[in-house]
Amino acid sequence: MEQLTKLVERVVQEQILSSAVLSQLRRKPEEGYTKVLVKPVRLRGQIQIQFEYHYANKVTHDNVPLTEAAVKMMSLFETTFKQGLLRTTEGDYQVLISKKFKVTIRKQAAVVRKVDVSHNRKKQYVLNEGVPVPFLVELGIMGKEGNVIAAKYDKFRQINRFLEMVADVLPHLPRNRTVRIIDFGCGKSYLTFALYHFLHVESKLPVHIVGLDLKRDVIERCEALARRLGYEGLSFLMGDIAQYEGTDEVDMVVTLHACDTATDAALNKAVRWGARVILSVPCCQHELNRQVEQSVLEPLLRHGILKERFSALATDGLRAKLLDCIGYRTQLLEFIDMEHTPKNILIRAVRTEESDGQESKTDPQMWREYETFRQFLKADPYLEHALEDLLAVRGCQRTM
Question: Ranges for the Methyltransferase domain (predicted)?
């Protein structure tokens, strides 16, 4: 940890730290927060470092003097978090800490050029307004001068929220070879182009991204735009999620708004490819809606709209638990604000180190929790059957 300690002390003391994000819990803290944002602020004429703690339903702040900030940040790394992103004026530092406290630090080109210490600073996006981004201009989200078109501001926010989630998993992607990515159901491909821009143009990673969709006209337009922009590592193909056989190994699988069990088909593909990262926003979860049956829940299930919403949430809960059982660390995150779309839950799964070994076994308690919930709902999930052979290898056998 010595290397990380020196880095943290230096960026704080030299006042070149613009912001930091500490994430990926080592263990759940008693206080219950899951992420901490760090940034310098000017309070009563003095520079302090603000620690912003994110809980499930609230956010709290703690402002500390510069002389104490480095110690506080290192304490969080040593006791609570395994991952960090430090943005400074000299470069961005990705920090990844293993279970045995082996620290990996990767430096990338700086995104920010000047530290903003105003207390109510304007939100900093991954892609900033006022800086022209070619694909955003081409897709009609930005004007040629970098101004965001008013009617497209929600889409601009959605793209940035997506890239924030991608930035969090950047340390889990390979650095010594081309990163292979499949985007199932890419549609108009706003996020596919954003992914290529962030990983290749901004982060300088060699990538090969394939966008897959069933609509020929959409694929043709996206392919033409990729060629016009000179995005050599980005291509688009017609194809179905369940039937796609274009590769044997993939590092990241993205699936946004795939309907019903098409999401499960994509998750199954991702797991079998050994994907290090999975990002999925499910849509239209009808499967469990047809299956769920539980008299205890009658006051809820008797109302169609409540049954639909409950079934969707339960489906994603079962999916996340299955991914955990198969060797991933899974989070359910808010993708964009509820007022913009009800399909606002993103499943983010990162393959754990343990799952790399063929002999890895699932914690029996984890599997019991999954089975208890499934049996309570009287559900028979598609994804469990799709992964049945892999689950069996890990010691997960259905009891009834």
Answer: 154-291
Phi/psi of residue 207, nearest 5 degrees: -135, 155
Beta bridge partners of 234: 209
Q: Which residue has the tokens 């999401």?
A: 263
Report the first-to-last Cα separation within the chain, whole angstroms: 47
Greatest CA separation for the chain: 66
What is the distance between the alpha carbons of residues 350 and 368, in angstroms, rounded to a whole number?
Answer: 22
Gap between the Cα atoms of 5 and 97, Å rounded:
13
Mean pLDDT estimate for the chain: 86
Find, among 209, 257, 259, 249, the residue nearest to 231 by Cα. Answer: 209
Q: Rounded distance, CA 258 to CA 266, Å?
A: 8
**Rounded CA separation 52/58 (Å):** 10
Other residues' Cβ atoms within 10 Å of the Cβ of residue 282: 25
For 329, the token pair is 């660390």
Distance CA(287)–CA(54), nearest Å, equals 33
Tokens (6 digits) for 73: 């940040």
Q: In this predicted model, what pLDDT tens digit does every residue of 369-392 receive, in sequence order?
A: 999 999 999 999 999 999 999 999
What span, in angstroms and rounded, lies between the C-alpha atoms of 142 and 39?
Answer: 28
Question: Residue 102 above 70 pLDDT?
Answer: yes
In 3D, which of 170, 163, 215, 80 has the Cα closest to residue 336? Answer: 163
Tokens of 277: 């990262």
What DSSP state is assigned to residue 353? G
Judge contact between 180 and 269, C-beta under 8 A. no
Mind listing the pLDDT tens digit for each residue in 309-363?
999 899 999 999 999 999 999 989 887 643 444 557 889 999 985 544 455 788 8
What's the CA gap between 387 and 148, in Å, rounded?
43
What is residue 125's predicted lDDT score, i.e. its pLDDT? 64
Give the β-pairing of 81-88 and 59-65.
Answer: unpaired
Q: Please give the structure tokens belonging to residue 354.
A: 């343990």
Strands 277-283 and 17-25: unpaired
| Rounded mean pLDDT, 81-93 | 90
Instruction: List pLDDT tens digits, range 189-207.
Output: 889 999 999 999 888 889 9
**Lowest-pLDDT choice from 112-116, 270-274, 303-307:** 112-116
**Tens digits of per-residue pLDDT, 228-266?**
999 999 999 988 777 777 777 899 999 887 777 888 988
